[in-house]
Design goal:
Residues 5-244 form the E3 UFM1-protein ligase 1-like N-terminal domain. This protein is α+β, with helices and mostly antiparallel strands. It is built from twelve helices and eleven strands. Strands 3-5-4 form a three-stranded antiparallel sheet. It has a three-stranded antiparallel sheet with strand order 6-8-7.
Length: 245
Amino acid sequence: MAFSLEELQRQFLAVQESTPVQALSESACVDIVMKLMKRKHFSLSTTLNGKEFVTPEYLTQEIRSYLVQHNGRVNVVEMATSLGMNPDTVTSKTEELVRKSKHLQLIGVDLISSFYFNTIAQEIAELLEERGQLGLGELCQKYSLPADVLRHEIQTRHGTSIQGELRENNTLTTPDFFRRVECVVRGSCLAACHPLSLHTLADLFNLPSDSVCTAATDLLRRGEISGKISSGIFTPSRYLDHQTD
């Protein structure tokens, strides 16, 4: 018996809208899915309450969204709790994302994006402009980051977002600030007739002691001042010559 196209469409719609006589229980559905997962038919992760299954793609999307919502830095364990997922599952997926993206880093238990580092670079630049010098240790404490990581990020942005130089003594200084320090040290050392405490000089001009000592060492090496430095004391050549006589 032949049916018209309209009749076939009507019957198909009726089947779609009909209520099934029997339905699988939630536990039975979960059991079936778990068995299929064990047989490697597909890959899913379960939520902590065991009531939902999450695809790898969906978990990736959730992690990226969560990272954006928290300005590019999140604690992976805390993120897992917020997403209602097993911490090991989220950590594993996070490590995979880091391997595939040059814009993500896993530092300790924190997932950090380039956006976060760009943000703090701007903060550092503004603070440096205001103060002229910043200590790397101070910045590490402020942002809870290892020194090697922060040093790399600062050096990467040197001359662009951060207009300062990270010196050997782990201080970040602007060119103007260090020129000012050198000017003070040069004038004081050239005028000195007796041993001069560099720490006292720093206090007198309200300058960081380490910057004053670094400037004195650089000036001495370049031959712009004459004498010797020992234990933070600059002794001018004229004094040394007088002692010899």
